[in-house]
């Protein structure tokens, strides 16, 4: 039994087609068939029922796939990390979520290149959760995201918290109110745009005493407050912390679409403050009074391999924060030298 045989089996199990599996792993179909047959011979077990279309796994094959797929992913990750450790790429591949690009990321990259003129930087638009797999596969070396993750292969540091602002159509009755309260926004259509939701394990079962007082003040129900544990959509969770449920919601594919609908008068949304320069002729951005209604910014990288240029990226980030007067706590990744 070897890695080529296992990878051939995993490809067939996932695609249920010898031809598609052969294409995926870059082999001819006869070569893939031989690898799979040799694996079955070595194990003394038939893993694939070849007499059905599409192909079916046998009961033993299903069991083997369930157990081996995770192990094989880890093995492939270790192999890739070992290769990168022995010969690090000269380029720094940075993943980012779109909202980061509207903030200080361009300024940070400019500072990084100014202090390291020889550095090659590649930027990739990729969601927070997709960044986890991209780090393991080597597609990116580091990622800027908005969500905390629990992954044994990944380490992360919190850069800072960014306040949310409310985005309202210019003609909205609250468009010129300088400080907004979530309860006053509850009767609007809230436009949701996050493709990544909060992990259920991070959502508390009850609200804090401070929020409970706010709930009482706002005449919200105990049912609403206790439902927080079921709310994983990030914007709805912000409302749920105060026992508030928006009157109506619309879900769209991304942040730009959400702001387009706000500009068209189709609802309101909440965005990190760095986006308040977008569509300003059509959208009014106003501050929220709630200090805990924030969007964190995290940096993620592998635990066991930190790209040589990541310390330079961190220094550039903190330099920009200091120039902007942004509060932060200086940190470094564990395996940074």
UniProtKB/TrEMBL annotation:
Keywords: DNA-binding, Transcription, Transcription regulation. The keyword Cell wall biogenesis/degradation does not apply. The keyword Endoplasmic reticulum does not apply. One of its GO terms (cellular component) is protein-DNA complex. It comes from the Bacteria. Residues 1-58 form the HTH lysR-type domain. GO terms for molecular function: DNA binding; DNA-binding transcription factor activity. Belongs to the LysR transcriptional regulatory family. This is Probable transcriptional regulator, LysR family. It comes from Psychrobacter arcticus (strain DSM 17307 / VKM B-2377 / 273-4).
């Amino acid at each position: 039994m070897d890695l080529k045989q296992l990878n051939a089996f995993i490809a067939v199990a996932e695609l249920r087609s010898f031809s598609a599996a052969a294409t995926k792993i870059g082999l001819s179909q006869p070569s893939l068939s031989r690898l799979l047959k040799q694996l079955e011979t070595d194990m003394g077990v038939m893993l694939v029922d070849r007499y059905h279309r599409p192909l079916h796994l046998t009961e033993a094959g299903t069991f083997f796939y369930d157990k081996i797929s995770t192990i094989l992913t880890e093995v492939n990750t270790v192999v890739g990390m070992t290769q990168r450790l022995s010969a690090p790429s000269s380029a720094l591949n940075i993943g980012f979520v779109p909202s980061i690009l509207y903030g200080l990321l361009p300024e940070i990259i400019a500072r990084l290149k100014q202090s390291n003129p020889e550095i090659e930087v590649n930027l990739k638009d990729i969601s927070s959760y997709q960044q986890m797999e991209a780090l393991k596969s080597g597609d990116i070396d580091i990622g800027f995201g908005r969500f905390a993750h629990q992954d044994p292969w990944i380490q992360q540091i919190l850069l800072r918290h960014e306040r949310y602002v409310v985005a309202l159509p210019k003609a909205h009755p609250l468009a010129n109110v300088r400080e907004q309260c979530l309860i006053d926004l509850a009767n609007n259509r809230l436009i949701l745009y996050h493709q990544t939701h909060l992990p259920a394990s991070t959502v508390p079962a009850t609200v804090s005493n401070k929020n409970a007082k706010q709930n009482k003040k706002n005449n919200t129900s105990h049912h609403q407050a206790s439902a927080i544990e079921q709310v994983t959509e990030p914007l709805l969770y912000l409302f749920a912390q105060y026992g508030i449920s928006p009157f109506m919601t619309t879900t769209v594919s991304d942040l730009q679409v959400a702001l387009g609908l706000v500009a068209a008068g189709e609802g309101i949304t909440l965005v990190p403050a760095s986006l308040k320069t977008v569509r300003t002729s059509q959208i009014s951005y106003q501050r929220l009074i709630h200090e805990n209604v924030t969007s964190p910014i995290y940096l993620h990288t592998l635990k066991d391999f930190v790209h040589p240029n990541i310390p330079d990226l961190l220094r550039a980030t903190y330099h920009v924060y200091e120039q902007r007067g942004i509060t932060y706590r200086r940190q470094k990744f564990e395996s940074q030298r």
